[in-house]
């Protein structure tokens, strides 16, 4: 399955003959931890919104998604004149003119500005508009996912490059591992000489030796780094909705890189290259995490 970004936009326009109306349905999405749907639709479209919500939940997994529906009705079918309100205004206007002896006629523009004079028609014959909008959902989501998949292919390429950098850095660290172990051996010898030259219990010597041995080997971290990188690449090959899984793996990779750096802190000479490689790993892991945040 193809990877999808959570960023995309698509719009589709349509029309219905009776009652004559045109509509524009647009869907915009950006990254989000979960599926977060927001609708901007005319007030009379509550039932249509519920149907659209169900469809989007079936077709999309994650993202902040904004759905906008605009409707333009042809002619005057979209509005109705409140005749009772207008008649009442005219009657009151003429009564006031007669009462105060003012020669004037009612102003149509003033009447139309009175709240409630024009009322939007809240229904459309036989649900034709609802049917037309629902029939277009598949196409607009297809366009949206096409754009999201194009973005996803770019993210896929960059993630593979980042993981290859991490893998090569780990392999380079392994080459310097023998040098690091020699440094710790010398430290261990020096520490043992110090302890032997003083009155120290054997248990203390064993504790010091165990501590240095525990800090000296980074083989476990290197093995886990390789395992996590391979698992990451396997998920990319599988595709689909893997954003959360990839983010978890990157957290694990970052943890191993931090442990590797802590074990090699304070080393000098050639062993400093391990620190440089560890920092390089962390940089690639952070770059990968930024990209993964936008995957579905």
Spell out the key features of this protein:
single chain, 296 residues, alpha+beta, Ribosomal Protein S5, domain 2, 3 domains, four-stranded mixed sheet, two-stranded antiparallel sheet, 8 helices
Explain what the structure shows.
- This protein is of the alpha+beta class and 296 residues long.
- It has 3 domains: 90 residues, Ribosomal Protein S5, domain 2 (2-Layer Sandwich); 41 residues, no CATH class; 143 residues, Butyryl-CoA Dehydrogenase, subunit A, domain 3 (Up-down Bundle).
- The protein contains 8 helices and 6 strands; from the N terminus they run βββαββααβααααα.
- The strands form 2 sheets. The protein has a 4-stranded mixed beta sheet, covered by helices on one side.
- α1 links the parallel β3 and β4.
- α4 packs antiparallel against α6.
- The longest helix has 69 residues.
- The chain is elongated, with a radius of gyration of 35 Å.
The SSE order reads: EEEHEEHHEHHHHH
Radius of gyration: 35 Å
- Class by helix and strand content? alpha+beta
Q: Which term fits the overall shape?
A: elongated
Can you tell me the residue ranges where pLDDT is under 50 for at least 5 consecutive residues? none
Proper CATH architecture of the largest domain: Up-down Bundle
What's the mean pLDDT score? 84
Domain tally: 3
Instruction: Please name the CATH topology of the largest domain.
Output: Butyryl-CoA Dehydrogenase, subunit A, domain 3
| Order of the strands making up the biggest sheet | 1-2-4-3
